[in-house]
Amino acid sequence: MLPKEYRLKKKAAFAATYRIKNSFYRGGIVLFAGIKKKEPDTVTKVGFVVSKKTHKRAVKRNRLKRLMRESYRLMLKSGELGNSQDYMSLIFVGYDKAVGKNFDEINSDIKHLIKELK
Questions:
Q1: Average pLDDT of the chain?
Q2: What is residue 41's predicted lDDT score, i.e. its pLDDT?
């Protein structure tokens, strides 16, 4: 599980990140990046969203969120996050194209999205 200090929770923080309109798409997952950090020692907050419109069943939505969260956690643990740590917040949004994918496919999509950040 992703440690508590890395989670994006407040509605205002989600809205501020969406407002920046800095987004990347790959394989049914969209990455929204917030503003760049002013102090490099602060933690990047991350949110994971799968809408009810994506799939009717909560089990499917939660599985997609778990897979995305675990992929990010493993990358955080191994230090493969690169430039994504330069941003205040990140939001991963899953869509119906990503619902049936396995962990390896989700993991490769998230790695590609993080590499796209500049």
A1: 94
A2: 87
Question: CATH number for the domain including 74?
Answer: 3.30.230.10
Q: CA 51 to CA 25: how far, in whole Å? A: 16
AA letter at 42: T
The DSSP call for residue 37 is P
Measured CA distances, 13 to 3, 28, 69, 73, 80 (Å): 18, 23, 18, 20, 24
Number of structural domains found in the chain: 1
Q: Encode pLDDT of 2-13 as tens digits.
A: 899 999 999 999
| pTM of the complete model beyond 0.85 | yes
With beta carbons less than 8 A apart as the criterion, state whether 59 and 42 touch: no
- Token readout for 86 is 């330069």
CA distance 109 to 38: 28
Question: 88: domain range?
Answer: 4-116
Strand 45-50 to strand 89-94: parallel, antiparallel, or no bridges (unpaired)? parallel
Give tens-digit pLDDT for 28-43. 999 999 999 998 889 9
With vertex at residue 79, the alpha carbon angle to CA 84 and CA 72, rounded to the nearest 5 degrees, is 60
